[in-house]
Amino acid sequence: MKKVKKEDIVKLKDYLWEVPRSFRNDMIVPARIIAFESLLDAIIEDRSLNQLVNVATLPGIQKASMVMPDVHEGYGFPIGGVAATLLPNGVISPGGIGYDINCGVRLLVSKLNYEDVKEQIEALSKEMYAQIPSGMGKGGNIKLSEDEMDQVLTKGAEWAIHNGYGIHEDLDFIENRGKLEHADPAMVSEMAKKRGTDQLGTIGSGNHFVEVDYVDEIYEPVIAEAFGLKIQQLVVLIHTGSRGLGHQVATDYIRLMMQAMAKYGIRVPDKELACAPFNSSEGQQYFSAMCAAANYAWCNREVISWEARTAWQNIFGKKTGSLKLLYDVAHNIAKIESYCIDGAISEVIVHRKGATRAFGPGFEELPPQYFNAGQPVIIPGSMGTCSYVLAGASGSRELSFGSCCHGAGRQMSRTAAKKQVNAPVLKQELRDKGIYIEAGSFKGIAEEAPIAYKDVNLVVETVQASGIAKKVAKLRPVAVMKG
After folding, report:
1. Which of 76, 180, 203, 313 is least crowded, fewest Cβ atoms below 10 Å from its Cβ?
2. What domains, with CATH codes, occur in the chain?
């Protein structure tokens, strides 16, 4: 199968490129890349654009297969990919959501000023690392019974709040209020449930983290005020998903769909794109299981927030106030949404894999405080650079099915990073910059080194130029907790 080269790509705008349908005769729609040219040159080097072209062949796909500027190759779909298929007969593909179902990020904001408490940041990093379990396969302090597991899979973040591990007001600031209604615990295998029994309140390993930042710059003062952000304010970023449970759900249903495709006469150019019609029994079973795993992830992030709040008060005391949830967004998920396609309103299943929802002002699901500002979009960078808070803009619905990038995006494999990075030296260099790292191993630090990631500033500038989202604030890290 021929590889996409730069001469195959047509420039539509400074931030928008297209591999036309004529590139390959099995493409149903074009493949589009949202990126400045300086980012495009690096994107061409891996398999992500070939994967993007493969996605453009999926039955029922609408308008275009798309990738964000933080794109890199993944399983079947590229990470940073967006694809919408027409209901009810368009397909749903587990590879378009990924193994870490509802991996996502939330931002907690404090009343404290960094300069006032900077001498206590190292103590805070150690206390947070002690309170929040992390690492490959690491369990937490909550052990779920079978009935409790089913409740978590059904109720999501509500379960944590009702059981004393969260704050009820948080629900207003979580995508879908932390619960998808189509969840069915019966569609989640016993193996998946077993893997998730003791993992609530844990971040795992890889690129997952809890990070303390401060607000370094504000670009949109009115929106920043609506979000409750101020210069020098300390905030906490939490990035993790559904842990082993979500991974097992993906494994189970990729296997099922590989077996089912022949029954529906579906052929895909890459077996990793295994799929089934959304309205088929297999499609409905997967969607119900995916929603349940998404609920587990929202519950997990709510419990981690409770642990972070505990650590916060242990260091700073109760008089300093609690950490308030600004917003929580998913970036590995499939959602039923409506869009204008070819002049008519159509219901589609939007696959977002390494992409976050980014709806503009007036979106009906937003809390009243954000209604005129747009949906908060939280973009983590790397542990040595910066992260961003954006606000979704109206252009996202037309250009990208209401979607935005989800981070900086890897530019170096974990294996390559381990070979190039001296982790003890990096840890000391970051400490010299005032960034305290707590991690279970030097391997984890090396894999997540800043050089392993693209320039998050350029990624964010791209989405701003495209009209998908607006820059609201820049965050600088001061403490990072990793597995």
Report:
1. 313
2. 6-411+453-482 (3.90.1860.10)
